[in-house]
Each structure stands twice: as structure tokens, then as C-alpha cells.
Amino acid sequence: MKENDFYVGYLPKAPRSMSKWLKAVIAGLLLLPGFVALMVAGNQHRFAATNFEYGQLTELTGVVSLEPVPRLIVEAGRDQRGGVITKSVLLVNFGKSGVETIFRNLEKELGRPLTNFEFNLRGTLIYGEGKTVFELTDQEASVLGHKILDKAYVPVKTVALGEQSFEGEIIDPKCYFGVMKPGFGKVHRSCAIRCIAGGISPVMATKNENGEKQFILLLADKGKTKWPLISRLAGKPITIKGELKQVDDWLVLHYDDQLLYEAASFPIIPNESDKLAREPKLLAGPNALDANIVLCN
């Protein structure tokens, strides 16, 4: 150290060599928070181009079909030959529940299939990624009226696309297409579990061979979809194999329950008769859902 580099804190000025070093350090420390903030912000997921028209009620008119999942089939335009182009709008209930019970009860009251009627519904639009979901915000009161169709509704012919396998993430369409941001991944998993367990149709978000997003409705191959099982897989990468079909403007995958268990790596738990049980052991009680989520992680 040079003799003039010696510095005592109470002196009015520090030596030039020391002051230059201190200025550089201080400048770096002042710029560091801004740099870190930019790095963190730049690595965040961008908000999805989806929308939830919260507080804005809209009326839609169309035919309600409960197969393969509850949906409102609306007229979206005409083709070059004058034929009607339809769009399937998925129907969900207010909160974390499905609408099937509402329309099953209504079907009993009408005494006819719902597809014999044109319904006027009021609710909240949810849309993005080329798909539309409609929330019955006022639940049963969202059904404003109906009238008998002059001619029977003829559903679009279902096209079988064969057995296929898809890798992606199980989402609930209500949150993914606009109600929550983000509506996917680990941060949204607990919400998606409750939405699907409440009866909202599960959807697989995946990509086709061109790297483009596509969405596939998931249905159990035999019998009713097991909501508790499929819901626990939400927000996790998974591969599902099944029979693929095109129904209207939606792809539908009929999966095998046993293959789903294997894909999920659920434990095989012996039952009372010492046979291999296919169903994960569930708990009962007011906090059963949370406990079962932990059990099956």
C-alpha cells in the first residue's frame, strides 16, 4: 500500500484509488436490484390470452346436450353451401361444480330428451385458445326459457379416430380458459382438483405433431367417469391412452380406468378379501378430500 493510500474514517476524503473502487461497488449495488427484477419478470409466464367476463351476463340460445359432456350447441355461422356451422360451448356451474344435475332434473320435468328443445341461457362467458365455456352464474335460474324445436336436432356425426396416446396435463376447462391465471400447473393443482371432483369435465391440454395446442375431453371407457380418480391427476404431467373420437368441434378420448391407474402409479392396496384392489384407499370425514389428495400424491 502506498503511503498516501492510508485512510482513516474521520478524514474528509478517501485516497483516489480507494474512492474509485468504492464508487464502482456502490454503483453496482444500486443497479443490481433492477437487474434482478428484470430477470425475475422476464422469466415469468405471460398471462394467457383467455378471458372471463366477470360481472357481465350474456344470453345464449342453442340446444343442450349432455353427451358426451354437458354443452350448449350454438349456431356459429353458415358454410359456402348454406349449411349451419355449430360450436360446442361447454357448460359449467357457478363455483366449483358441474351442471349435469340441473339438466337431468329438467329433462325429467320435460319428459323428453333435451335435444328436442331450444334453450335460452344466461351466464358468464369464459373463452380463449379457440374454446368457449359458459358459466351458469345464477345456477337453475340461469335457464331463462325453452321452446320445442320445429324439427328434431340432428347431432354432428361422431368420427372415430382410433386408439391413440397423448402426453400432457389434465386441466379443468373453467379455470384454464379464463377464470384463473395461471389455470394450469402445480400452482393451480388444488383448485383444479376441486373443480373436476365437483363435476366439471376434465380436459387434457396437449400438443399435436406440429407443436400446436390441442384440448381433449376425457371420458371413462366404461361407465361414469370417476371424478375423484381423474381429479387427483390434475396439474401433473401424464400420458393417457384410449380411443379418440371427434364429436362436433371437440376431440374426446375414452380412456381405460386400469390404464389410468397405471399411468398415475397409484399403489395397489389389498382389500378385506386379500384381492388386489383397483381403487385407492380413501378416507372419510369432513376433511377427507384434503387427506386423500395427500394420500395419493
How would you characterize this protein structure?
The protein contains seven helices and 14 strands. It is α+β, with helices and mostly antiparallel strands and 297 residues long. The chain folds into two domains: 99 residues, OB fold (Dihydrolipoamide Acetyltransferase, E2P) (Beta Barrel), CATH 2.40.50; 137 residues, no CATH class. The strands form three sheets. The protein has a five-stranded mixed β-barrel with strand order 2-3-4-6-5. A five-stranded mixed beta barrel has the order 8-9-10-12-11. The N and C termini lie far apart (62 Å). The C terminus is likely disordered.
Total number of domains: 2
Taken as a percent bin, the fraction of beta residues is: 25-35%
Q: So how many helices?
A: 7
Please state the average pLDDT score.
Answer: 77
In spatial order, strands of the major sheet run 2-3-4-6-5
* Biggest sheet details: 5 strands, mixed, barrel
Low-confidence sequence ranges: 267-297
The Cα radius of gyration reads 28 Å
Structural class: alpha+beta
List the secondary-structure elements in sequence, H or E.
Answer: HEEEEHEEEEHHEEHEEHEEH
Number of strands: 14
Q: Could you give the distance between the termini?
A: 62 Å
Measured as a percent range, the helix fraction is: 25-40%
Multimerization state: single chain
Overall, the morphology is elongated
Keywords: Membrane, Transmembrane, Transmembrane helix
Transmembrane segments: 21-41
